[in-house]
Each structure stands twice: as C-alpha cells, then as structure tokens.
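2024-03-11 09:14:02 DEBUG pipeline.ingest accepted 1 chain
2024-03-11 09:14:02 DEBUG pipeline.ingest length=280
2024-03-11 09:14:03 DEBUG pipeline.predict start
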Amino acid sequence: MSVLPDCLEGAIDLHVHSSPDVDIRRFNDLELASEAKRAGMGAILIKSHQNSTVERAWLVSKVISGIQVFGGLVLNSTVGGLNVAAVKLALAMGAKEIWMPTRSALNHRLYHGESGGISVLDSSGGLVPEAHAILEAIAASDCILSTGHLSPNESLVLIHQARRCGVRKILITHPEWAPTFYPIELQKELAQQGNVWFERCFVSTTYLCGSVPLQVIEQAITEAGVKTTVLSTDLGQPQTPPPAEGLRLYAEQLRSSGFSPEDIHQMMCTNPAHLLFGKE
C-alpha cells in the first residue's frame, strides 16, 4: 500500500503513451484519462512517436470530465520531420508541446545502430532553416519546446537559438537516458541560464531504458535543482506499471531518499503546471 496516498493529488504527467498507436499500449486514450482521474491527478499530456495527439486529447476532454488532457506533436519522419506547416497546424489546434525528433533523430538511430535520421544541424554545425522557422513559430505561442532524442550537442545549439528567438519554455527530455545523457555540470549550467527544465522520466529506471540507478536521478535533482525538475513517467507500455502507479512509485522512492513532500509537489505539480499554463 502506498505510504503517500495523496502524492498524486493534482499531479501532472507531461509524458505518457496510450493507444491508438503502432506500439502496444496498456490503455487507450479514454482509459488513460479515466485512470488518471481516478488517481486524483490534475492533467496528462499524451505523446505519440508517430502523429499528433492534439486532436485525440481534444476529443478525450469532451468525454472525460474532471481531468485535463493535452496533446502535442513529435517531429519524426511520419509527420514529415522538421515540418514547419505541421508545427503551425498543431499550435493552431492547441498543442502544448512540440518535441524535436525522437525515434527518427540521427542521434537515436546512431545509438541503436540504424542508418539515416534527422538532425537539426547543418554541415557547419548551425541550425537548419526549418529548425529556425519552427523555433519562431513556438516562440509566438506559449508552447513547450522539448529536445526529444537529439544529442546534447544538437540540443545546446537548439536551446541557444531558441532563447534568441524568444522561446520561454524549454524541456530537456530524459537527460539521464544513455542516448540523451547530460553530465551534471552541463545540467547545472543550463539550469542557471533560465527557461530550461529537465524532464526526468520514471521509465529511465526500468530495463526498457537501461535501468538507470535512481541515485543518478537523485543527484541530478539535488545539483541542478528541484525548481528545474519535472517528474514524468514516459509509461504506457504493457510490461511496465500503469502510468499513475508509476508516478506514485516514483514519488515514494524519492521520498525515501530524503526529498520532502514539498519537493515532490514542486516537481510533479508546480513545475509542470507552469509549463502547461504559466505565462512568462
């Protein structure tokens, strides 16, 4: 039984998977929202590696009350990669998060021994024009820019230009996972620059993502800061805990390591709420 029965009250998961999907998922969109509502959560953001979830989230919100459901767009090859038109459409439809390429990213594919892939950099190390245009579109909105599965080197260039364009909400995706690993010193440097948060996903601690020791995440939170950390799950796989239960386990494990209830609330409620709703 949970020793933190209220830890999910108002919690927000910015990274959760459901069906329809080409990957097998534990819940469909409606079931996922119902489970999150039952757990007392405040909001979820559905992610798909293949297509926009903005329209799906809108429909779910019309059916399931008492929980806010949002969507976004991942810029993989299935939506045309760095597709400016797709980004602008998603933003017009209410997207809350635009992810740089994940499974189609050059960095992701290199790590898995696959050929091809999308990079945001040109041959001289600068951003390609499409990436510039996407940043400008995001800056004109209140949407979250996420780094996806880009390499840290690519992301640093992207983040620098995003700030210059006026992007105010930059979320670094699972910085503890091997393909997208950010050293602690780099995290601290980015945290001090402002407008950057780190999404530390529970799935990274499972065998699906290399079984990252929880101590690695704990150290990163301690050194980069609770105020720049977002705790998400990246769950939805049938062989992992249900997303709401995964978030509860995450909170309990961090509490047992010394993080206070206020810390957990900051990372599960306050920070993701700011990214979803806060105005800069």
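2024-03-11 09:14:41 DEBUG pipeline.report Residues 261-277 form the longest helix (17 residues).
2024-03-11 09:14:41 DEBUG pipeline.predict end
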